[in-house]
Amino acid sequence: MPEKDWAILTVKVATAAKVKELAHRRGLSVDEYINYLINGGKSRSRKADWAVCSICGVKIKAMNLPDHRAKVHPKTRLTSQ
User: Fold this and answer.
1) pTM of the full predicted structure?
2) CB 3.0–4.6 Å: which of 3, 15, 35, 77 could bond 11 by disulfide?
């Protein structure tokens, strides 16, 4: 669902503005935040979780950290496990 003009179709503008504000506070899109609420506050994905690579210090999404280490630091991958 696109975030632009979606409020007109589904809810009052004031409610839509509050939902958008709450979603962006958590670092999520409106669609992700609504899915989060529908699932009872349980996130299916770890999209909002961020981690820092202990080798190079890059801030990266936690779900992408294993791929980052395998591609960027292939020689240190075996010693760090």
Assistant:
1) 0.40
2) 15
